Amino acid sequence: SRSLNLAVIPGDGIGQEVVAEGLKVLSAVLPQDVKLETKEYDFGARRYHATGETLTDADLEALQQHDAILLGAIGDPSVPSGVLERGFLLKLRFAFDHHVNLRPSKLLPGVATPLAGQPEIDFVVVREGTEGPYTGNGGTIRKGTPHEVATEVSVNTAYGVERVVRDAFARAQARPRKKLTLVHKNNVLTFAGHLWTDIFNKVAEEYPEVTTEYIHVDAATIFLVTQPERFDVIVTDNLFGDIITDLAAAVSGGIGVAASGNINPSGDFPSMFEPVHGSAPDIAGQGKADPTATVLSVALLLRHLGYEAEAARIEEAVAADLGERGGLPARSTAQIGDALAGRVAG
Ligand code: IPM
Ligand code: MN
């Protein structure tokens, strides 16, 4: 019989609440013969305040034993900015080489968008996850003086760019529209931008069926609002990808439904799946958070592990639930989770 050995990191704020619903739906959708094992970890603000630790080598070793990781949200106002971001989330993405940060955007029927009309939105952003300005390659001199200088170097390696570009081409090839857009800023960032563009054009030769285009990141923010239907797969660097995926979430139903995967395609390390939203301390503990983004992240997790039919069932359940939502009274976090679990068990 099969087994799924999951590390669960509820984290802070609403992370606890949404992860509980994600697990509910996961249990409901898994076939009988799959033995689900979960182990919960207490990372986040609690662990930090109790021990001063964010993520130790021993923690990484423990996490590495799992097939995948489900994360709620990490972050709390009681912890100085940057401590958990760098010390936990980015540390984990880097340690497990999560170089494909996958962020799909799909505007489902009945879901409100701030955009005029009901545009067709169905694209996926492949955000590079281990390089760019996120590597911590920088420093400050003359700190605190009027002449302080701060650098934050964007690191781009041919190896790192090529592997994520290849992943994006493969995803584009597998989709009906077969279109891939490179988003960068090669008119100004001429070193990194040209590395990306050259590698993109080289790999494109191996994918004659994939239509390619290049768009500067500033223009991309316009098109994401004025012509979102233009996009199918987007590949971009870590920081541009961070920014445009928040915009993408905002136009396609909001961060309440935006899912993501931090993926190591080789399987050398477990991949981690998490809602794009944060810990939302302002509404934590009130049963107000929408667990849909976490439930959709569970679908990405299942697809990554080869449970395609189960992933599709979750996505269909979410589409059906969101389609009805306009006509439903406001529901709590647990009520939405129950409704989705009911539908996938169906
Ligand atoms: C995200 C977040 C993180 C990022 C932060 C919290 C480090 O904004 O997952 O998009 O910038 O990647
Ligand atoms: Mn972000």
UniProtKB/TrEMBL annotation:
Catalyzes the oxidation of 3-carboxy-2-hydroxy-4-methylpentanoate (3-isopropylmalate) to 3-carboxy-4-methyl-2-oxopentanoate. The product decarboxylates to 4-methyl-2 oxopentanoate. Binds 1 Mg(2+) or Mn(2+) ion per subunit. The keyword DNA damage does not apply. This is 3-isopropylmalate dehydrogenase. GO terms for biological process: L-leucine biosynthetic process. Substrate binds at residues 93, 103, 127, 218. Its cofactor is Mg(2+); Mn(2+). It catalyses: (2R,3S)-3-isopropylmalate + NAD(+) = 4-methyl-2-oxopentanoate + CO2 + NADH. SUPFAM superfamilies: Isocitrate/Isopropylmalate dehydrogenase-like. Belongs to the isocitrate and isopropylmalate dehydrogenases family. LeuB type 2 subfamily. Pathway: Amino-acid biosynthesis; L-leucine biosynthesis; L-leucine from 3-methyl-2-oxobutanoate: step 3/4. InterPro entries: ICDH/IPMDH, IsoCit/isopropylmalate_DH_CS, IsoPropMal-DH-like_dom, LeuB_actb. PROSITE patterns: IDH_IMDH. Homodimer. Its EC number is 1.1.1.85. It is an enzyme of class 1 (oxidoreductase). Mg(2+) binds at residues 218, 242, 246. Keywords: Amino-acid biosynthesis, Branched-chain amino acid biosynthesis, Cytoplasm, Leucine biosynthesis, Magnesium, Manganese, Metal-binding, NAD, Oxidoreductase. It comes from Streptomyces leeuwenhoekii. HAMAP family: LeuB_type2.
